[in-house]
Predict the structure.
Amino acid sequence: MKLTEEHEQFRSSVRRLVDEEINPFIDEWEAAGIFPAHELFAKLGSIGALGLEYDAQFGGGDADHGFTFVLAEELGRCDAAGVPMAIAVQTSMATPALARYGSEELKRTWLEPTLRGEMVCSIAVSEPDAGSDVAGISTHATLDGDDYVINGRKMWITNGTQADWICLLARTDPLSKPGDYHGMSLIVVPTSSPGFSVGRKIEKMGNRCSDTAELVFDNVRVPVSNVIGEPGRGFQQQMAQFQDERLVGAYLAVSGARRALHRTKEYLQQRSAFGKPLLANQALQYRLAELYADVDTIDGLLRFAAQRYSEGIDVTREASVAKLKVGRLVREVADACVQFHGGMGYAEEMWVARYFRDARLVSIGGGADEVMLRIISMMEGMGKK
Ligand SMILES: Cc1cc2nc3c(=O)[nH]c(=O)nc-3n(C[C@H](O)[C@H](O)[C@H](O)COP(=O)(O)OP(=O)(O)OC[C@H]3O[C@@H](n4cnc5c(N)ncnc54)[C@H](O)[C@@H]3O)c2cc1C
């Protein structure tokens, strides 16, 4: 993937925003367990970062995928993973289906203000009883005149306490039941709708500055026209949307891992033991070198995937492999960073402990490692669909 001067100029504006508008406030947001999404997203919207590849007609940037790659690389430099994850929900997890398949009216009403950062959105797929197995969801939308009436619960929803609208996966075919892949739809649900409520905000081990919630839909009524694209195609649309999520999640995580290695190298350079800098020990140099090599390898895969994505090629394979390998690598990187910082790696006052906690999510969220292995197995003709 070739990056041009324009990509680099964009990189500079994102970097400035991360350095001035995000990193100085991260400690405060981590302690609060939330960050001001509307305030921050408006700033991101003002530099065009929220709708890079979307149609300019609906407030997007008509930009190529290289800009998304650069955005994620720079957001990966945030001092906590919760903020980039929440931004990625807005740019690459909750909006791709709406931009691809949504009606003009839906895009004008919901996508445009979201790309400006005036609205915050969430993607609601997971449920208390169905996460890895998306076909196991039971939230349903029953047709009543020109409306759907929605009932169910969604779990682990990022931006869930701040969202203005939800991209909800629900069963719209009355014959469709948990276990079926057909009969689901993606629906835009305004959080101002009567019957919608935040059941609870979930306290988490990491990604603490990102609000995560369980959401309740109790006879929530939305017009049939809020269905994104063709009714009954929600599962397939969501599977496509997952590829955006997994790719961008991997871009963020690789960038974060490289930064963590740089910071650890600097620490080992300035800390001495046994009469020399810790970094003078070949054992530590080689361990870091090995991890840099792994980061480079996955970075290469991601650039290849990004190029194919730009060419409109299906990247399910690359996104699944990258998601799996990045998840495992960041766990190793985080573990080495803690180890090499000694006691300081275990102290809350350093960045390392937070990185260790945040990194653990990559192997779980957006499809656990085992789900990636399942996809790759099926692509290799093993297991059944
Ligand atoms: C911080 C955070 C933010 C999230 N944000 C969102 C969001 O915004 N929207 C949303 O919809 N969801 C979100 N999720 C949910 C996330 O996608 C799910 O947690 C994930 O898909 C795993 O589902 P589960 O938790 O139900 O685990 P389960 O499905 O119960 O699986 C538990 C474990 O079993 C193993 N496993 C599962 N299936 C198999 C298999 N076939 N073979 C072998 N092992 C298997 C895996 O190790 C898996 O981790 C978020 C989760 C977290 C923690």
In short: DSSP finds twelve helices and nine strands in the chain. The mean pLDDT is 97. The CA atoms of residues 71 and 166 lie 23 Å apart.
